[in-house]
Amino acid sequence: MKSINIRGRQGREAVRATNLCKVYPNGTVALKDVSVTINSSDFCVVIGLSGAGKSTMLRCMNRLIRPTSGQVALFGEDVTCVNGSQLKQVRRRVGMIFQQFNLVRRLSVIDNVLVGRLRFNAHPVKRCLSMFRQFSRQEKEFAFDCLQQVGIADLAFRRADALSGGQQQRVAIARALAQEPEVFLADEPIASLDPRSSETVMQILSKIHEEKGIPVLVNLHHIDFAQRYGKRILGMSKGELMFDGTARELDTETVSRIYGDKAREALEELSAA
Length: 273
Prior knowledge:
This protein is an alpha/beta fold and 273 residues long. It is built from 10 helices and 10 strands. It folds into 2 domains: 10-93 and 183-273, Rossmann fold; 103-181, no CATH class. It starts with 12 loop residues before the first strand and ends with a helix.
């Protein structure tokens, strides 16, 4: 069986946001002049309260939403205003993981992972066959290998809705791996999981980063996980970037600025980490 050989682009910037602003139609200001560069060597964790702008920033980076102003660049290419087929190309380069997994629950685990291979079926006949789940042997082997990478190859033919939350999130990661992405963005991937499953998911993301050289940017509520897994930590509050540094540099004063009146709970997590 052919093993996965995905390598991030080493030694250069992966994603760059410059003066990013986002105002929603109801007037909510989600991002205020945010500038940050995610390098190819980064395992970067974004922390902050709900509504701080973490998810909006990631969705702007993947162009799931369009920023009101500012610029987003992916590996040096400006993707701020791309549309149509160009936008599809951008999203194919980014492995996106969500809190709610976004699986097709009635399909098998391996069929969900094979969805990640659709980007490679540009030929009309191949795309048509894919719609009817007629994938090649090589694609199926690749998908199975992705499941091995996340430790659930034994569940390949089980329906997705028969799995636990932690197992479903691992299927979602395997699906993203099947895209052969150049960067991973994970939006609260452990928010719905129990502590043991959360640990497993974070270990898998860290392993992908270390072994395959893929930069990872992950939003977390849990400051203790951020401390243990983040090579670099970004702190956001009310749409602004308040902190950019290492876990060691994340002190009490900084946590208080990021979390405001919720700082006490965050500091308790920090002291326990």
